[in-house]
Amino acid sequence: MIIRVALPYHLRNLARVGAEVSLEVAGPVTIRAVLDALEAKHPVLRGTIRDHGTLKRRPFIRFFACREDLSLEPPETLLPEAVVSGKEAFLVVGAMAGG
Amino acid sequence: MSSIRVLVGTKKGAFILTANGTRKNWDITGPHFAGWEMYHLKGSTVDPNRIYASQSSGWFGQIIQRSDDGGKTWNPPGTKPEDLMGPDGMPKGKSNEFAYEGAVGTHMWYDGTQHPWEFKRVWHIEPSLTDPDTAYAGVEDAAIFKTTDGGKTWKEMPTLRGVKGALWQPGAGGMAVHTIIIDPKNPKRIYIAISSAGAFRTDDGGLTWKPINKGLKSQYELPDPDADVGHCVHRIALHPSRPDVLFMQKHWDIMRSDNSGDQWSEVSGNLPTDFGFPIDVHAHEPETIYVVPITSDSLHYPPDGKLRVYRSKTGGNEWEALTKGLPQKNCYVNVLRDAMAVDTLDKCGVYFGTTGGQVYCSPDGGDSWTEIASHLPGVLSVEVQTLK
Fold first, then answer.
1. Which of A13, A51, A94 sits opposite B59 (nearest CB)?
2. For residue A67, with 0-12 CB atoms within 10 Å meaning exposed, 13-18 middle and 19 or more buried, which class applies?
3. Mean pLDDT across the stretch B300-326?
4. Superfamily of domain A2-79+89-94
């Protein structure tokens, strides 16, 4: 499956990509599978979305799909069909923080 | 003719200022890595076009950047196609992985309890004096890491945290290794400083470390003012020709050691206040040192709203205010610990950056100053390269 992932401004610049990247994801399309594919294609993003080692989501990163906040869902969570089909993008968002 | 390249790290990106040896007309490029906190950039003395940079963000964490062409282009080391594939076929992307060695351990927290070490960011990168692929990184929470592959991977030198690390405590700005100085005559000897743990030295390339804090007095900060560790050292500096002589800006007090840190004595002398952050040494006069007095630990701006660098030509105790070209009224900026540097031209240039986004240059050892950048984001660090 080709999955669309939207990245926040600073990560786009870091990875030198546009607002969205398209990723080939084999097997079940889970949050973890998409992030693994993203980091495999753009290794500069390793550690910026998930911590090295623990692979836990960084505190000020949020995940959205189809207007649902998936940030607190387990990494094995399957993404909605609209994301799997490429109709909707999986959103990696820098949380509003800092006042 | 020689030229000068000034590497400026700010709260919102990095800037590179260049000028010829007259140091009169400056060209500014940047912001590089716009919007990111750039704690520090520093070039290799072996290969001045090799520059390491620490880029960080509360959202996206730590990134290491490297330039091999003097700051024109940058890449995170280890993410170019030729670097990518590890033995398992997966990309490496390890240049921003700073993993503490072994059991992570704990240090003193603000409330007196023990708190686990948590990596936050790289404050300072110190390239080796002999190998451009080797560099040291001072990080928060306090530890020192080393790379020997140009920044692609970093490995902690863990014995430092074994030196009474459980007693180290963060200051208001965090708990970081912010100063790393390699002895130019003995590369196995490295000095580091930590807020708030003190100064430390290794004589065996980092296998073992010892605290070098005898003579420091922290009567307002520590239950035992003469403690081995726990002192809030803001910065140390040395002259390359005389690496056994160290100068220190402590939280309060300007200190001097003539025996590689084994014993310190106070040389604050006639300064209007001995609180401050940076300290540096003239490139050609080992007894000429510079500080920027700040009102107090509660008032992080210059006394009386006058931005004054103080110079001692006697290695401390006797200080003179340097004011020509610096604002002498309504100035309430700070100068952070890594934000002062010198060039090595015949007439030594002295540089510093402020939290108000100004960068000043004195092309005459401090006698007069010119504002060479005026409206940058708050300056976190200033390093200077003298290019032949």
1. A94
2. exposed
3. 98
4. Beta-grasp domain (3.10.20.30)
